[in-house]
Amino acid sequence: MSTHRPPTLAPAGQPSWRRRRLDPDHSLGLRLTLAATAAFLVLVPFALLTLLVLGAWAPLHRLDTAVTHALHGYALDHPAWVTLMRIWTEVFAPMPLRAVALVLVIWLLRRGARRLALWATTTMVVGGLIGPLLKLLVGRDRPELLDPVARAAGYSFPSGHASNATLAAGVLLLVFLPFARRGAARAALWAAALLITVLTGLSRVALGVHFASDVLGGWLLAVAVLAATTAAFTSWRAHTGLRPVRPTRDGVAPEVERHPGSA
């Protein structure tokens, strides 16, 4: 008569999956877990905002309407402001920013930084595809104004200008941080990235073609994509034996500045 031994969940002495994920000695698993958690935490407010938009939550609608009408009234009284916003929104539109990203990718490939070029491409492509898909799924109409100063086609949530500006600014920032060795240069890079991100989003609301929540949704979506692709890339490079990095301080591939072929 044969006896059946109960199956074991893990070999004796082998730490559980949960402990391996949180064990500092298993640095790759820990970084993956923390990075995935960070990306999830960014997606939570985006998902909540999306649900509020889909449900036409009255307080959000009132806030969006108040901001839109206030900025629209200012635009009607200040034609120079409208001209500035139109120029900015065209210069930092999705297509010009994608062209800049393409130039960056070509430059990285010429330096032999193939993995870094793949990360930049993946970040821009994934973010660029998710945004339009969500626009179709949410189907939110753009603001309707009696005397518009600008027009835009398509649905409204999330803002494509805001998300693509955030993606491009984030990619450029994380690629070029290793080249900025001094504090002033790093501060300038961060300031430029924030300026592009914030002012591009503001321009869409100022021109009356997006609600404020559309822009916020675009920012949150882009940050979530950046967090996810950066987590994957930094874990990948650590798995190949390269030293761990803090992307917001070191960039995603510090070795690109001295040894581009290893990035």
Automatic annotation (TrEMBL):
Residues 114-230 form the Phosphatidic acid phosphatase type 2/haloperoxidase domain. Pfam families: PAP2. Coiled coil: none annotated. The chain crosses the membrane at residues 28-58, 91-109, 116-138, 158-180, 187-207, 219-236. Keywords: Membrane, Transmembrane, Transmembrane helix. Residues 244-263 are annotated as: Disordered. PANTHER family: AT30094P, SPHINGOSINE-1-PHOSPHATE PHOSPHOHYDROLASE. This is Phosphatase PAP2 family protein. The lineage of its organism: Bacteria, Bacillati, Actinomycetota, Actinomycetes, Micromonosporales.
